[in-house]
Structure formats: C-alpha cells, structure tokens
Amino acid sequence: MTGSTAAQQRDLSEVVAAAVDRRRNFAIISHPDAGKTTLTEKLLLYGGAIQQAGAVKARGEQRKVTSDWMELEKQRGISITSTVLQFDYDTTTINLLDTPGHQDFSEDTYRTLAAADNAVMLEDAAKGLEPQTRKLFEVCRMRKIPIFTFINKMDRPGREPLSLLDEIESELGLTPWAVNWPIGSGEEFRGVIDRRTREVVLFSRAERGKQASEQRLSLDDPALRDSVEEDLLDLAIEELELLEGAGAELDLEMVHAGELTPVFFGSAMTNFGVRPFLDAFLELAQRPIARSSSDGLVDPLREGFSGFVFKLQANMDPRHRDRVAFVRVCSGRFEKDMTVKHARTGKAIRLSRPQKLFGQERAVVEDAFPGDVIGLNNPGMFAIGDTLYVGPKVEYEGIPCFSPEIFSWLRNPNPSAFKNFRKGVNELREEGAVQILYDTDESKRDPILAAVGQLQLEVVQHRLENEYGVETRLEPLGFQVARWVAGGWIQLEQLGRIFNCKTVRDAWNRPVLLFKNEWNLNQLHEDHPELELSTVAPVVSGVEPISL
Ligand code: G4P
User: Fold this and answer.
1) For the chain, which has fewer Cβ within 10 Å, the N-terminal or C-terminal residue?
2) pLDDT in tens, 399-421
3) Mutate to test the pocket of ligand 1, among 269, 272, 277 (most ligand atoms within 8 A of CB)
4) Residue 204 belongs to some domain of the structure
C-alpha cells in the first residue's frame, strides 16, 4: 500500500468509526393499538423529521401513513409494508425500522428485526403483554436483541405497574429494570420518579394532541407534596423501595445481551415521558454491532462495505413497476456508484442509484454507514438474505423462514393464464411476499400459500391480479401450525405413519408438518420425543429453490 492510500484508508476508517459511534438503529415491537404510530410520530417530532403531530397518521379522510404506498394500503388506510425512518436527534443519527402496523402482520415484520440492533417493546398499560408482542419478542430473543420497554397510556387506568413488571419477568424470562416509576395512574396519574436522578417529573393533563408539561422537582423537595397527594406519592416511594430491595442493577452488559430490559412509563399521546425515554434509550442502546457470517463475526469497522438484503418490495411506484431491495449496511462505508460483489452468484454489480427512503419519499443517497438502510433497484437479482460486499468475501447468515399459521391452496381457475400464474407465484415467493409449500402427492400441483397473517394472502391475490393479470381462488386447508423436521425425510421415513398431521414440502424440498392445532403437535411430541421439530426453517445457501 502506498503512503497516500494508507493515509486515505486511515481517514476512511476514522470516518466509519465516527459514523458507527453516532448511529442507533431500532424497531418497535407491539400489538396493534398499543400506540406505535403515536410514539413514532412523537419521536420524529423530536428529531425534526416531521413538523407537526398528525403527519404520520392524519385522521378520517386524510388518513395516510407516511409509509403507505401500495394501492391496497391506500384503499384500507393501513400500513402493510415496512419502511425506514432516518432522522437526526442531537448528535445521533437514528434509524427507526418501521414494521407493518396491521393486525395481520406478515413475515416482513420478522425480517425487519433481522436488520435491527435494538427493539422497543411497547405495551399498553391496561393490557400488558399481548399476542403479537410475544411473537415478535421471540424473534428478538432468537437474535438476542436488546429490548427497551415503554409502558404506554399511563394517563388511562391501567394495571398495577408491579404486576406489569412481574409479567415481563415470569413470561418472557427477561429481567425488568424500571428506569422511572409512575405515581398513580389514569385520572390519578401524577408523573414519574426518575430512579437514577431521584427527580419527579410531574404530569399535567394537556389538551388532546398537545404536549403535556414536564415540570421536574427533587423527590426530597417539600413543594412536591403540594402537587401530589400524600398517599399516591407514599405508595410510589414504597414500591420503589421494593424494587431497590430486589437488588437488580441496571447492568449494561445484560441489556446488550437481551437479558435485562430497561422499563419506562409514559404516555405517547400526551407526549409525556417520550423525550426522557429517547434520551435514556440513546444512552443505553447498542451501536451497530458485529454480525454473524459464515466466517464468524464481521466487525462494522471492517475495511470495505458489506451488507445484506432483508426485504424486497415490488411496485413501490406503480408508474415504474420497480422493485426495491432493502439492504442493511453492516460494515464499512457504502458509496454511490460503488461496484460490489454479490456473494450468492459471485457477480460484480455497480450500484448506481442507491436510495434513501423515508416513507414515500426517496432520494439518491451518496453514502451510508453501518446501521443504515439503503434501497437498491432490483431487477430480479437480489433475494432475501443475499450479501453484498467489497474486499475479501463475506457471507452473512441468512434470514430464516418463520413458522406460518395460515395455509391455503391457491387455485388458478383459468388454465390459459397458467404461464402468468406460474411467473407471479414464483416471483412473489422469491420476493418473500409469501411462503410456498407443495403437496407430497405430485398429482396435486397447485401451490399452497403459507402465511403469518391473513392479509398476506390477500396481498398476494391482489398483486397476482393487478401485476400479472390472473384471478385466483383461495381454498383454506384448515391447518394452523407448521413445523420443519430437523432430521429431514430420512427421519420421517423411520418414524413410519404419523397421525393428525399433513406432510408437505417447502420450496427447498424439505419436509414440513402441518397440524390443526397445538394439541395435535404436542401429541406427536409425546408419541415421538426423539423427533426434533423447528418453528423456523433452516437457512439454505447455494441451493436453488423449486419453482412452480
Ligand atoms: P398502533 O399504531 O400501535 O396501532 O396505535 P396508535 O398509535 O394508532 O394508537 C392506538 C390508539 O391509542 C389511538 O386512539 C391513540 O390515540 C391511542 N393512544 C396512543 N397513545 C396513547 C396514550 O398515551 N394515551 C391514551 N389515552 N391513548 C393513546 P384511537 O382512538 O384508536 O385513534 P385516534 O382517534 O387517536 O386516531
């Protein structure tokens, strides 16, 4: 290396190190209605990324989510696709990986978590843990993602804060550490005690949509008793002492290992506790981290860009029928016009029009750093999990397929449309819009759509009709649980006949068992404890899938 290139390399390393230092990346996991849209909006307001409340989700006629672009989304006023919101706050660059907000969420939500370094678990104080939150938490646990908990809607009557913490501990096996502690709740919500500074942040009820004031007083200030009823304050202090007595510490290593969750109480709608949450989150959250590859961990400061595709999206702009691959940058500096290697095919690709995405808006991006997400034009070249890199070869661990819960035959009533039907099914599978399973009986050639949510199936039907011109019919199979057989076909054959389940194969010709319910699954476990079943499909690399 010549003197000047060595110096340039050193400069670049410093630029990347500084960029990594100031970046934080996270996704919000929650159940519908917990307040994700409201919280996102408040966070964006602090970052100056939007100018007014309501820009993320306006009401009624104007209802339009920043991340809505598909026709179906517009018709229903919901957000199906996930996008990325990047904004600066203070000296930090934040990447908020937005996940679909609809109840019938899809695998996209799971995959987005593969690109996240931290997760914010949002709970409704009246409801505690809800089904969708639990499912998403499981994915975070698989990847050991640090979890920060925000308990929302404290301005409304809710459950006992201690019982909410207990639930996190006993049901998720995660140690909760309350960063602040509420004084009262609902009509009697008076504020929170910051456990680290022993300051009380007082809550005053503001008009809907307006920011509540956040007056601060020391816990020892006698004036506090003028603003807060004696019994409420005493109870909060007593509970706080109980927590202190329990002895857990805010151990950052445990936070980053996904074992301890800092917990915050607040109210997104009234904007109470959001800024303190954001400040503490940025202090405690994990920077863009080293990621697993086939050759061990890859440091974000590795010389040379690398990243992986975690999501594909077709027709974001129907006028152009374009396809975009979302790439999470994992190491080095990404630059416009860079020529990168595509690990799966070995091809060199020049990335001439990388984009930065913010909801519907797109701008050509000049450079990007670890923790960022870029959008690449994808003329059918990229698949979920693909690695792009420069320099020595890197291949990141793929993104697993997650266990679907809804299964339906996809029928094509019009044989003359078969070519388009086949093209559509293959492309939508490639894109990861839905998983495709096949009957083991070769005479039944129709594909089985397997999805995490009902809406995913509707999106597939809608897109087959609009983008490929084929009308299709769905015929539910009546199964609800799927498991991959770790030992493959050989193990299944050794087992002989099994009851109350259907064997199908996935696009990589691996056996998948479908059950009507968990009970039937448990029955099989009892009968054959040696059978190893998995809720996620093993990641494949270097093998082409079966096409329809
Ligand atoms: P989501 O994206 O997680 O589905 O939830 P979203 O933010 O849309 O919030 C769901 C409902 O909960 C909304 O009310 C929202 O105003 C309300 N909400 C969110 N945060 C708080 C909070 O801190 N306190 C209270 N009291 N309510 C909160 P909605 O009536 O369903 O809709 P809208 O009329 O407000 O649009």
Assistant:
1) N
2) 877 889 999 999 999 999 999 99
3) 269
4) no
